[in-house]
Amino acid sequence: MKKDNIQDERIVSQKRKIGSDAFGIVFYGLLISILIQQYMFDAPFSQYAAEFILFMVSAIYVVGRNIIVGNNLFSNSFKGQKMVVINSIVCGLTIAVITTTFNTMNYGFEKMGGATLIAITAFITFFCGALTSFIGFEILYILNKKRQKQIDDMYNDSDE
Fold first, then answer.
1. C-beta separation of 30 from 107 below 8 A
2. What is the DSSP letter of 38?
3. How far apart are CA 59 and CA 57, in angstroms?
4. CA-to-CA distance for 152 and 140, rounded, in angstroms?
5. 71/69 Cα distance (integer angstroms)
6. CA separation (Å) from 74 to 20, 77, 82, 140?
7. Residues in contact with 31: Cβ distance below 8 Å, sequence separation at least 6, in sequence order
8. How many CB atoms lie within 10 A of CB 132?
9. Rounded mean pLDDT of 41-67?
10. What is the predicted pLDDT for the residue at 99?
């Protein structure tokens, strides 16, 4: 007789949660590793290219799989467009703060042109980062809504 190993739903759910947590640790660890190597160690791209490629592939995979299966990437507590704008502003601020901080640390306050030029540079970086993020999030929002509509239509058609 063959003995089947039956696991209850709680055990399966816990194993999936542990795997998800491990992925999150590795994912954000790669991001931190990239930032440290790029800004603090002033390493050439070839030194952290593998981490960058793995980070981008895993990010694209997670977003792509969620869109394919029809999961809503944007919170239902806000309207989707509000979430796109909020995410864009947060990304722009994060990019501006990290870039300005590390550039000031690497080049020094005086070489950066003083407080006024640093503030202008930070604002321009924020604007460019927020705009680029907005375009990316808007594309994801449109693709996500389109896929959710396809799935809704598929299930609505089968009910009739």
1. no
2. I
3. 5
4. 18
5. 6
6. 19, 9, 9, 9
7. 55
8. 14
9. 90
10. 87
